[in-house]
Amino acid sequence: MKKEPEFFWLSYNLLEISWKEGINEETLLKMLPIKAYLLKHLSTELREIRMGYHRMTLHFKEFISEPIDLNDIMQLIENAETVKAPPRKRWYIPVCYSSDVAKDILPLSSSKRIPVEELVNEHSQREYVLFFYGFLPGFMYLGGLSERLYTPRKAVPDPIIQAGSVAIGGHQTGIYPMDSPGGWHVIGRTPYRLFDSLRKKMPPFLPGDRIRFCPISLNEYYMLRDNTELSLDHEVM
Fold first, then answer.
1. Whole-angstrom Cα distance, residue 130 to residue 149?
2. How many Cβ atoms sit within 10 Å of the Cβ of residue 36?
3. Of 154, 158, 167, 190, which is the most exposed, with the fewest CB atoms less than 10 Å away?
4. Cβ–Cβ under 8 Å, residues 163 and 175
């Protein structure tokens, strides 16, 4: 049986740390305190740490020709495993599932032979975990999608998916923070603005936080969309 985590030097300044493959909250909760601990104790050596579902890549500063000894890193990780993870939050995000703002919900309902109301319930009654950001600033990769709603990405991406679109891609769901090309299936839209480049506003959600989608009507969507200071309900877990 392989010992976790495993270590791989990808280059002289990129070290990959890998756990068991899969979208797994237990693995995420192991990785988060390790990331925080390494950033604190290797602050002068590291440029950044990038996270995936089961991998963490340590990017050392370019001027380091020989990164610190791997045994030192392994010892830091052992120390980090004893550190208590910071409290997480549960966020409630309003989402309109009307076909007026969710262009793929009717085709998806038809192809999967799931009535729209049932599809909405299946998606909104689950709780999702934020694993990491990627693809776009503020784009959340959320795990916890029902197997019943698993849908491969589109073979031909859409040229534009509107900001706030809630979509399904493979085993994941997420929200497009800005207008962007994309290959995920849009089943809803939130009036909440996840990303504002002019105000340099980033989402308040942190990896490890949980997300709940709360269905709203089309009228509620338009009313909330015009509220530039819309805040979200949340609670500490």
1. 18
2. 15
3. 154
4. no
Closest CA to 62 of 82, 48, 76, 79: 48
What tokens were used for 122?
Answer: 């299946």
Distance CA 150, CA 113 (A): 13
> Position of tokens 């309109």?
96
Instruction: Go through the chain and tell me how many residues it has.
Output: 237
Distance CA 221, CA 164 (A): 11
Local structure of residue 149 (DSSP, 8 states): G
Q: What is the pLDDT of residues 182-205, one digit of tens each?
A: 999 999 999 998 877 665 667 789
The top-level CATH class assigned to 6-80 is: alpha beta
CA atoms of 136 and 155, how far apart (whole Å): 20
- Interatomic CA distance for residues 74 and 63, integer angstroms: 22
Q: What is the pLDDT of residues 98-151, one digit of tens each?
A: 999 999 999 999 999 999 999 999 999 999 999 999 888 889 999 999 999 999
The superfamily (CATH) of domain 89-236 is Cyclophilin-like (2.40.100.10)
Residues of the chain with CATH 2.40.100.10: 89-236
Query: How many Å apart are CA 161 and CA 179, to the nearest integer?
Result: 6
What span, in angstroms and rounded, lies between the C-alpha atoms of 42 and 152?
A: 39
